[in-house]
Design a protein that fits this description.
6-stranded parallel sheet; globular
């Protein structure tokens, strides 16, 4: 874990905790281990309000909870972790709150890319997913710098969905597919004219409905960099996906602990993985029925 962002325990107790988790994870590894876990980090503002904390304190506490979840996930051998950091819909909140979150995001991104950070400790490559043009310039530059600095890390992947919604992701993928296919059609028509053919009738009629297929869209999704999630964890007891990974979550296990995000801990993650293992056969069977 990042220096200064842990629980403040002595090295002895930290090492003891690591050893304890390794023992549990070795038992857990007998069953299927998720390759990809996605988190909807819900409850930061309620956490602060509940404790009469200053604005932004909930998000800072949530960052510490995130560092713990990343550490536990990578210790277990989970390769892909995706987090829902900031929705496009969140830009509709008070401008002061949005700016506060952007400033905090920039600060934490810069912490993440420090040499001693959790990303470098576990060899994690970071991707920022979404319409990054909507971010403030300093935050966007920090995100681009983080992706560049961690580009050579290959042991695990952290996808941070920011300025993201699933509908925007799908719309973007469809638009990109249409632009590319239209370019191909224009090129083929140009070749047809050069060969004395005025219209590619077979292409125009018989194949028109197959111009864009599922594969075309899927490979242009923002999340094409990772396999579909095996587990999606949303804190605060909510079962809504809130426009997050709608395309990718058809067969993932949804876990909804009642705890607020800053309060999430090791046992919540352990329970989610155990339930995933219990339902794994059923989920795999459903996938094969496609």
């Amino acid at each position: 874990m990042e220096k200064g962002s842990g629980s403040g325990g002595t090295p002895f107790f930290e090492n003891l905790g690591t050893f304890f988790r390794k023992c549990i994870f070795s038992v857990l590894s007998v069953g299927p281990i998720p390759n990809h876990i996605a988190f909807i980090m819900d409850g930061n503002r309620r956490y602060a309000k509940k404790r009469n904390l200053v604005e932004g304190a909930g998000h800072r506490a949530g960052y510490l909870a995130l560092m713990s979840m990343l550490r536990y996930s990578y210790e277990l051998g989970v390769k892909y972790v995706t987090i829902y950091a900031f929705s496009i819909e969140n830009f509709k909140r008070h401008p002061e709150e949005v700016q506060s979150v952007m400033d905090l995001l920039q600060e934490k991104i810069e912490q993440l890319i420090k040499e001693e950070s959790i990303l470098n400790h576990y060899g994690v490559r970071v991707h920022f997913i979404g319409n990054l043009k909507l971010l403030s310039a300093p935050t966007r530059l920090a995100a681009e710098r983080a992706m560049l600095v961690t580009a050579c890390n290959s042991k695990a992947v952290l996808s941070i969905c920011v300025a993201y919604t699933s509908t925007n992701e799908i719309m973007h993928a469809v638009e990109e597919s249409c632009v590319e296919k239209w370019g191909e059609i224009r090129e083929l028509n140009a070749r047809g004219v050069e060969c004395g053919v005025t219209e590619l009738e077979g292409y125009e009629k018989d194949e028109a409905r197959h111009l864009i297929n599922l594969t075309d869209i899927e490979k242009r999704l923002y999340m094409a960099i990772a396999p579909d999630p095996d587990i999606m964890i949303r804190t605060s007891g909510e079962t809504r996906l809130s426009n997050f990974l709608l395309w990718q979550s058809q067969y993932c296990y949804l876990d909804s602990p009642s705890v607020l995000w800053p309060d999430i801990g090791f046992w919540h993650l352990l329970w989610a993985i155990m339930n995933f293992q219990r339902n794994h056969f059923y989920l795999e069977k459903k996938k094969k029925q496609l």
